[in-house]
Amino acid sequence: MMKTNAARILDGLKIEYELREYKVDENDLSAQNVADKVGMPYAQVFKTLVAKGDKTGVLMACIPGDAELDLKALAAASGNKKVEMVALKEVQPLTGYVRGGVSPLGPKKRYPVFLDRSAANWPVIAVSAGVRGCQIIVAPEKLAQAVNACVCPVARRSQD
User: Fold this and answer.
1) Nearest 10 degrees: CA dihedral of 91, 145, 56, 136?
2) What mean pLDDT is reported for the chain?
C-alpha cells in the first residue's frame, strides 16, 4: 500500500482512514469509474476541483462525483463576486497534483477548501490520496477538520 503525503498528513493528525488502491485507466479518469473500482456509490466519491476567485485567489472544492460545481454558490461561500475553474495546465503548478489525483490534503500551498455539505450524508467519503490509483476513505467531519474546510452547499446535480 502506498503512503502518500495526504495519508501522512492524516497520520500526523491521528485521523483514522483507509487507503484503497485501484487500477488506473488513463482514458477514463471520471469519478464514476473510480467509484466503480473502489466499490462505493458514485455520490460518496468526492472529486477535488481547483478554482480561482476574483478576490481570494485559488481555492479547492470537494464535491460528489455525481454532481457539478456550482460556481455561484462557491463564490458566495468564499467571499468572491466571481469564481472560475483554473485551466487544466495550471492545476499541477498550483497544487503539485495531476488531474485525477488532486487531493484537498497536502497541496503545494494551503488553499481554502470548500466541502459540499452532502458529505455529511455519509459515514465516510472517498477523496484522492494525491495520486491516481489511490483513494483515502475518511469520515467527512475528520477530512473537514484536517483541511479546515468550510462545509457548505457548493455542488449541484444536473436535475437541480
Assistant:
1) 10
2) 94
| Res. 31: pLDDT tops 90 | no
> For 123, which DSSP code?
S
State the Cα–Cα distance between residues 93 and 88, nearest whole angstrom: 10
Is the Cβ–Cβ distance between 114 and 149 less than 8 Å? yes
> How many Cα atoms are found within 13 Å in the side-chain-facing hemisphere of 65?
22
User: How far is residue 45's CA from residue 56's CA, in Å, rounded to a whole number?
Assistant: 27
CA torsion angle for 94, 34, 116, 52 (degrees, to 10)?
20
Instruction: Specify the residue for cell string 466499490.
Output: 39
The one-letter amino acid at 94: L
73 Cβ neighbours under 8 A, 6+ residues apart: 152, 153, 154, 155, 156
Rounded Cα gap, residues 139 and 125, in angstroms = 6
CA-to-CA distance for 145 and 77, rounded, in angstroms? 18
Q: What is this structure's pTM?
A: 0.94
Phi, then psi, of 4 in degrees rounded to 5: -100, 170
Name the grid cell of 126. Answer: 472517498
Question: Strand order of the sheet with strand 134-138?
Answer: 18-21, 134-138, 125-128
For cell 498528513, the residue is 9
